[in-house]
Amino acid sequence: MTEAAVPLPEVPLSLRKRVEHVDTDASGVVHFSRYASLLETAGLEELERRGAGLDALTAQGLDLRVRELRVSYRAAARFQDWLVMVPSVDHVGPASLKLGVKLYRDGPEPLLLAFGSLDFAVVTRENGVPACLPPSLSSALKLAP
C-alpha cells in the first residue's frame, strides 16, 4: 500500500459513486466544485443512518444551515473512478454539529483523494433562528457508529 492508502470500511451502496462525465472538466479530472456535493451527500447519509436525518429534524420543526464548508484536496479523482465516501460525526453541540468526510478512490490500494467538513447550525424551520437539538437527536448523533 502507498503512504495514503488505507483499508476502507464497509460502506452502504449510497456512499459509493462512480465518477460520471458531468463531474469532470475537459481533462477528465473531477471539478473541484463537485467535492462539496459529495461531502454533503455523505454527511446527510450518516445523519440518516443514525436516525437524525432531515426527516427527523423536520418532524421536530428543525433544519440545518451550513456555517462552514472545508475541503482539502490530496489527489485527483478521474472519469469512471469508483469513489468511497467515509463520513463521521465529529462534533455535536447544543445547537450545532460538525460532519467530517473522507473521500477515497477505491481499488486494490485505496487512495485518500480529499477530506473535509461541514459545520451546521441547527435552526427552526419556521423562521431560521438558532435552536437546540432535542435530547433524542443529540443522543443519536453522539452514539458511536
TrEMBL record:
SUPFAM superfamilies the record matches: Thioesterase/thiol ester dehydrase-isomerase (SSF54637)
Any Pfam family: 4HBT
Origin superkingdom: Bacteria
Keywords: Hydrolase
Statement: the UniProt record of this protein carries the keyword Cytoplasm: no
Domain Thioesterase: 28-108
Protein family according to the UniProt entry: Belongs to the 4-hydroxybenzoyl-CoA thioesterase family.
Matching PANTHER family: 4-HYDROXYBENZOYL-COA THIOESTERASE FAMILY MEMBER, NOVEL THIOESTERASE SUPERFAMILY DOMAIN AND SAPOSIN A-TYPE DOMAIN CONTAINING PROTEIN (0610012H03RIK)
Name recorded for this polypeptide: Acyl-CoA thioesterase
